[in-house]
Amino acid sequence: VALHDNKKGTLEATVTYSDGTQTVFTNTYAAEGPATITGKKVIVNRGFNADDTMQVTITADDGGKLPSPATIDVDLTAGNDEAVYNFAAITYTLEDLQKDGNEYKDKTYTYTVTETVTMPGTTPDTLTHKVYVTMHDNRNGTVEATVTYSDGTQTVFTNTYTVAGPATITG
After folding, report:
1. Banded model confidence at residue 160, pLDDT cuts 50, 70, 90
2. What is the DSSP string of the chain?
3. pLDDT level of residue 165 (50, 70, 90 thresholds)
4. Higher pLDDT residue, 20 or 66?
5. Listing from the earlier edge strand, what are the strands of the sheet with 122-123?
6. Do residues 129 and 155 touch, judged by C-beta distance below 8 A?
């Protein structure tokens, strides 16, 4: 910057740049945040047996990101009648939101969670379990995930044990 007295009571400034161009400062905004999808397995009329198995699988109905892995084994402790599971967190970024000009708008992704079980003598769960993840840019470098479930506070798979076979009544 060179200053020059213009003899009119003011100074004139002349700016020259070492590379001949103006200096440009570019700020890039980025944000991310996690969502964790959880659930529960319930068995009615008996506890889990040592040979009972369960896997849950999550699929994205509309192209949303998936946890890795998307299929997990659920730990069914023998004798218990409930078990919980958690998929790995899904990390969302601004690219996962809806862009409207320079603004990022909330976006909701829909997921379906299904089970595969081996539990002799039980009636399988036939409900469709949906999970909705709504992403919001907090404008402070974080993306907030709000997770809601068609089942309430988490996905709940319920299997009912029924005893079948002949009965002998004496008396």
Report:
1. very high
2. -EEEE-SSSSEEEE---TTSS----------EEEE--EEEEEEESSPPPTT-EEEEEEEETTS----SSSEEE----TT-SEEEEEPPPEEEEGGGSEEETTEEE-EEEEEEEEEEEE-TTEEPP---EEEEEEEEE-SSSBEEEEEEETTBSSEEEEEEE---S------
3. confident
4. 66
5. 82-86, 38-44, 155-161, 122-123
6. yes
pLDDT tens figures, 99-135:
888 889 999 999 999 999 999 999 888 888 999 999 9
Which residue reads 């089970």 in tokens? 115
pTM of the model: 0.80
